[in-house]
Amino acid sequence: METFTPATQTELARFIAGNAGGPRRGLYPAGGRTALTVGSAGGAVNTLIDTTTLNRVVDYPARDMTVTVEAGIRIDDLQAILKEQGQRLPIDIAQSSRATLGGAIATNTSGPRRAGYGTFRDYVIGISAIDAAGRLFKGGGRVVKNVAGYDICKLLVGSQGTLAVISQVTLKLRPLPETSALLWLTFDTFGEVENALERLLVSDARPVAVEVLNAACARLISTQSRLELPAESPVLLLGVEGSPHEVDWQIEKLRREMVPYGVQLFEKVAATQTAGLWDALTEFPTSADEPATFQANLRPSRAMEFAQRATELGVAVQVHATTGIVIGQCPESVATIEQTTELLAELRQLACSASGNLSILHCDAEWQAVLPMWGAAEPGWPLMAQIKRKLDPHWVFNPVRFGDVSSPVESSGSRIESQKD
Question: Within this chain, do residues 28 and 96 fall inside the same structural domain, yes or no?
Fold first, then answer.
């Protein structure tokens, strides 16, 4: 695979334009290369576009709580700049020392704080990108109240690098909280956890993270955070942030409300140790040594049922309880592709019965062409294929996301539509 590393956005646009007018090689936009296998069906890509040199801060009016940066900036570098002004982008991103802003937006990455703060769709207010013909286009602007025109920002968030190369982004920001706390609650059963979650819906407390871990996941999280926490039964983990008074009030409120619902242990993690635990929760989707890690999306009301069955199958499970997103690491005992296919088929069927789906985040490279990386066919896939053809008619950007690279437009489009049928 060749690699092209542009020095400027203009140079990147010229390169893409030259490719469109000549060889039309497949182009794979990449930043920190932390999610190259997510959703990939395998196969060769001609040229990887390395955006990490596009890392300038273009404009940072801190009093407006917005920042405009090039998309290749590393997440840790961006957060360090914002921290100097007492601000942050409140989205948890795994491998943040490597991951770039553009890559995180393209994959719509989010973590445990999604419950309280939302996703990139809530923070990207302006975006610049380059289409398959090498043309620069923009959406949104540099002010929070800019609502003119089509919402191109939301179209590109989560587009997996298949529509355009994101080159520059404007974000709205939030202040850094004065303090935070994490509460580790253990239960005997997932049924008791579900009852506690229902009570949480009417609570005056507002946790920014509501995570459910089965015992296998809880042990991994405890080990990775270097904390000795009880991890032999389901865990409900609640995160609160704000001023010391706000945090203390929420902790006491949650203690009174949660304990009657079967809590076996209510433990507050010391403030000096919360950083490691936040990191372990964020890194769980990328920390597995096992052959496959998946993500299921389903109705939150069915998430505990899914977690129970996954636990019975030996899967380590992390549930973002307010959104119905479940991250699972397949057990070591599932070592062959046949075993993995059988396990995932059952869980995918369960997710689909709950109006959801199951896709694969990471797996052995030789499995990518065999496993259904994107899960069961979705009703929206034909529409997505039409948008892809409009913006990238020659299927140049990230063609392996849609399967057959050799005949991209016809084979990939028909593949999506036939799967729907």
Answer: yes
Token code pair at residue 354: 């709950």
Structure tokens of 48?
């990887």
126 close to 70: Cβ distance less than 8 angstroms: no
Residue 120 CA to its chain's centroid (Å): 10
Q: Do 260 and 126 lie in a common domain? A: no
Bridge partners (DSSP) listed for residue 255: none
- Contact predicate 244/149, CB 8 Å: no
Question: Which structural domain, as residue segments, surrounds residue 413?
Answer: 381-420
pLDDT single digits (tens) 162-220: 999 999 999 999 999 999 999 999 999 999 999 999 999 999 999 999 999 999 999 99
Is the Cβ–Cβ distance between 165 and 130 less than 8 Å?
A: yes
Out of 155, 175, 195, pick the residue that ends a domain. 175
Write the pLDDT tens digit of every residue in 74-108: 999 999 999 999 999 999 999 999 999 999 999 99
Domain annotation covers residue 374: no
Q: With respect to residue 375, please indicate whether it lies within any of the assigned structural domains.
A: no
Coil, strand or helix at 235:
strand
CA 116/CA 98 separation, integer angstroms:
25
